[in-house]
Specification:
mainly alpha
Length: about 180
C-alpha cells in the first residue's frame, strides 16, 4: 500500500480507493488520448479538403472538433473533481504536478466553460449562449495555438520529461498499480 494513502483508513478501504483512482486515471488516459486524436485527425482532414473548395465535409470536421473539444472539457472538469476526492491516493511526488494542472484548468476557465456552454443552453441569467461568447471562452481555454493545447493534453510521447496530462495520468495510475498490486 502506498505511503500517501490516508492512515486513518483500513487497508481494505485504502485498496478500494486505490482501485477507484486507478480506474478513473485509466479512463482519463483513454478519453484524452482518443479526443486529442480525433481533433488532430479532423484538423488534418479539414486541411486536405481546403484545396477542393467548396467541400461539403468542412462543417462535419468543425463539428467533430467541437464534440471532441467538449469531451476534453468534461474530462478536465472531472480531473478537478478527481483531485478533490482522491488527492490522498496520489503519490506525494506527483501531488504538485496534479495541483498545478488543477490550477491551470481553473485559470483557463474550463469549469466556467463546462458550466455555461457544455452543460447548459442558457447562461445563469436565462440568456441563450452566443457564438461570440462561446468562441471567446474557447480561445481562453485553448489559447492562440491549438496544437500547443493538444500537446499539453496529450503529447503522444512517453518521455520522462513529458508534462502532458495523459502522461501524468498514466504515471500516477502506474504508480498506484505497482504500490497496490493492481493490473
Amino acid at each position: 500500500m502506498t505511503h500517501s494513502l490516508n492512515n486513518k483508513q483500513s487497508n481494505d478501504e485504502q485498496l478500494v480507493r486505490a482501485k477507484e483512482a486507478w480506474h478513473i486515471l485509466n479512463e482519463f488516459t483513454i478519453s484524452l488520448t482518443t479526443a486529442t486524436g480525433i481533433i488532430r485527425r479532423a484538423i488534418a482532414e479539414e486541411e486536405k479538403s481546403l484545396v477542393k473548395l467548396p467541400h461539403p465535409d468542412i462543417p462535419v470536421f468543425q463539428f467533430t472538433k467541437m464534440i471532441a473539444f467538449n469531451y476534453i472539457v468534461m474530462c478536465l472538469y472531472k480531473w478537478s473533481e478527481f483531485w478533490k476526492s482522491y488527492k490522498d491516493v496520489i503519490p506525494s511526488e506527483l501531488k504538485e504536478p496534479f495541483k498545478n494542472v488543477v490550477k491551470e484548468i481553473d485559470n483557463k476557465g474550463v469549469i466556467q466553460y463546462r458550466n455555461q456552454y457544455v452543460g447548459h443552453i442558457h447562461d445563469k441569467y436565462g440568456h441563450l449562449m452566443t457564438e461570440e461568447n462561446q468562441n471567446k471562452a474557447i480561445l481562453r481555454i485553448v489559447g492562440s495555438d491549438a496544437e500547443r493545447f493538444l500537446y499539453w493534453i496529450n503529447s503522444g510521447k512517453k518521455l520522462r520529461n513529458d508534462h502532458s496530462l495523459v502522461y501524468l495520468a498514466q504515471n500516477t495510475r502506474d504508480f498506484i498499480s505497482k504500490q497496490c498490486d493492481l493490473p
